Amino acid sequence: MLPFIGEGAFGLALLVLWVFCIVDVIKTPDIDVRNLPKLLWLFIVLVLPDIGSILWLILGRPQAVVRREPRHGHMSAYPEYDRPGRFAAANPDDDAEFLRAIRDRAEEQRKRAADQRRIAEQRAAEERERHRGGGDPTA
Fold first, then answer.
1. One digit per residue, pLDDT tens: the chain, 139 residues?
2. In this structure, are 104 and 56 located in the same domain?
3. Whole-angstrom Cα distance, residue 31 to residue 28?
4. Is residue 67 part of a domain?
5. The domain containing residue 7 runs over which residues?
6. Closest Cα partner for 62 from 94, 112, 25?
């Protein structure tokens, strides 16, 4: 009875490998698939379960991505930010010109809002005068 358990375990392992490879082919982005188009790999894995699965793992599956060493003691989630020569923003509190520009813009916005409020108050006062001064048009 023991020889059958070994054969059953081997068959189960091949089934698990086959299902894994089918799911892996489907989930792999088209651009990352090597040597053949993705649909052809899926066909090969489906039609030739054992050989197709092994061929997929060796020839079609994307190669592992090699991570670069982090620069300056940290690993960026966005590698394009680690590009040499890229301008790195400084701390805004240390940049006097930046702070002055923000203060100037805020002052400009306050002046504009005050002017708009003054104009709205003048229009409202003129409208009240018109209603008071006009009175009854039949009189």
1. 445 566 788 888 889 999 999 999 999 988 888 889 999 999 999 999 889 999 999 998 887 754 455 555 555 566 666 666 666 666 666 677 878 888 999 999 999 999 999 999 999 999 998 888 765 555 4
2. no
3. 8
4. no
5. 2-60
6. 25
